[in-house]
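I hope you will forgive my troubling you with a question about protein structure. I am sending you one protein, given as its amino acid sequence and as whole-number tokens for its backbone shapes. Thank you for your consideration; the sequence and its tokens are set out here:
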Amino acid sequence: MQPNTKTSLYGVIGNPIEHSLSPVMHNRAFMETGYNGAYLAFHVTDLESAIAGVRGLGVKGLSVTIPHKVAVMNLLDEIDDMAIKIGAVNTVVNQDGKLYGYNTDCMGAINALLEKTKVHGKNVVMIGAGGAARAIGFGILAHGGKLIILNILEDEGARLSKDLGVPCYPLSEFGRFDYDILIHATPVGMSPEVHKMPVERKDLKPNRVVMDIIYNPLHTRLLTESVKIGCTIVDGVSMFVYQGVAQFEMWTGKKAPVDIMRNVVLKALGE
């Protein structure tokens, strides 16, 4: 579909942005559903000017990534209650010039997990307390999971522990905790340092569900070692795709082509 005067413009803003697979995913979804939209990546250092541009040009929606997920909240007209609780926005919807902020990282993570396991009543250990972990933590609790946070940075972990009302312990104590679901929400093991993992292999529990939000590489060392001991794994592409699915449906009102979005991301990753 060729862009024309009726094409709706969307994009992702971040710094850096060159690595983003969102344009590949969303443009393929637009094509598949016949929606007259185009999605671009914008390298943004001046956030205030970028949001003014969204208003001035009538950009219909944005994905927001590092480092703008918190700062963008001060520039929007209304913010969804869940996004306020999480303290970050990754999705902007422009409705007749009024900008609404949402967080789809939360539902992206939960939907990825629900493909493989129930969350309600499960004991969940989450490694990490940054922005992604914060969104995932709220989602786990909203779906009835029992959560423990493990983190290296004490102050960061303490803040999230207080906000969620769950316990937080040093990551060094990982070996003493049992769990049904293990979620890794830090950059440890991301390309190029693919040999790293956040915990010792000997401390992993067999036959559990293990989720890693990293999607490059798709099969992190944590997931590879977990498979060896009989665990069910949830890779980072699942969360990435499902947060994008939620964005697509908010923007277009159409049912997202989930499998096609997943396949185009996997192809872009060389899988």
In short: The mean pLDDT is 95. The longest strand covers residues 8-14. The CA atoms of residues 32 and 38 lie 13 Å apart. Residues 236-252 form the longest helix (17 residues).
